[in-house]
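Workshop exercise sheet. Pairs work together: one partner reads the sequence aloud, the other fills in the structure field after running the prediction. Swap roles for the next sheet.
Pair: D.N. / O.F.
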Amino acid sequence: MMACGALDVVPLITHRFLIDDAPEAYQLLDVPGTLGIVIDYPESADAMDVKTVELAAAVDYKSLYTPGDVVCSFVGGGNYASRVLIPAFSEAGARLDTLVTGGGVSAVQQGDKHGFAKASTDLEAALADSAVNTVVIATRHQLHAQQVVSSLKAGKQVFVEKPLALTFDELAGIDEAWQSQQGKSRLMVGYNRRFSPLTVTMKGLLDKVVGPKTFIFTMNAGAIPPDHWTQDPELGGGRIIGEACHYIDLMRHLAGAPITGFSAHSIGNAPGVEITEDKASITLIFEDGSMGTIHYFANGGKAFPKERIEAFAGDAVLQLDNFKRLKGFGWKGFKSQRLHSQDKGQKACAAAFVDSIRSGAPAPIAYEEIMEVARVSIEVAEQLRGGRGCPVIRQQVQLAPRQPHPGVGRRAFRY
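Structure field:
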């Protein structure tokens, strides 16, 4: 109808802006009388080079930076970044400098909403900015490793949402970049469940137990369509690498000892079941004799709780339900702890990272543990896809010789 002239929308257009002036357009959205806003893009592709624009928060913003400030560029402004990560870092006292996204309009919109100084589609420019000392990566999984490498090479402190990498080659590249900084750059993965207040209580209780511990972790993960990008090994890594890594890290944390072996089994092939690896049981063995099984099941229902953590140690049991209630059974001096609402530790995780930079302390999770969990996650996923037995972890990556990391003891990985 518009093409033949039967529908004329020209009278509805009250404002028109060039893409370079897009921030002004967004400021008019709540102005009375604004009806239709048109943003004009250049006709030639050459004119649409990457751009960085200052936002409303940029006024005198840089003049407020002081030595010791944690000044962040965020890479990725999707749903999780916008709802959780950006508010968490802001609340922790980080200064929000640049929001980098693949689309300039989304960067401007989210940047204005959260008080960033700049919006950009140019990651290289953000990494070259000497005012920025920290990069938070919240893009799609297949981009994480390369963006971590680029950020480390730029000398930035790096926080990346899980997973750290999808392949062993990517891990080797990250290790090389980290070693080149001689440990000056912190590398942190968003394993937030370690930082839940109930996990903190649980860890404190378990650390007092002498001897091996046993664990049962159950994640009622829920189904995701087989064609979703997270199920693609090359884009999302699959759900073991992309999500069950949370549980591998959490069990490693609660056990307090290196992982020395594992076995993993998924459901068998059956008609109508395209993905089997997201319905699996993973048993981890630890250096101190502890062991535990992770049940990661995508074929459950929402009527059942999503996450349950159980620890058996010292003739007693701890049971954590949905990161909202922790109960002790036969636990001397502890019966229960309950939160008013679920807390998976996202805010505390971001705050711990920001505080470590501000204070000069080591990263909240040791680099060696981050690499260990990433390697085990990839190895488990490969076993589940290949269906081959692998009772003992095999080293797949030749890591560069370790350099001392301030505050973090050196430890050789064992396999």
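Discussion prompt: The domain at 52-191 is CATH 3.40.50.720 (Rossmann fold). What would you look at next?
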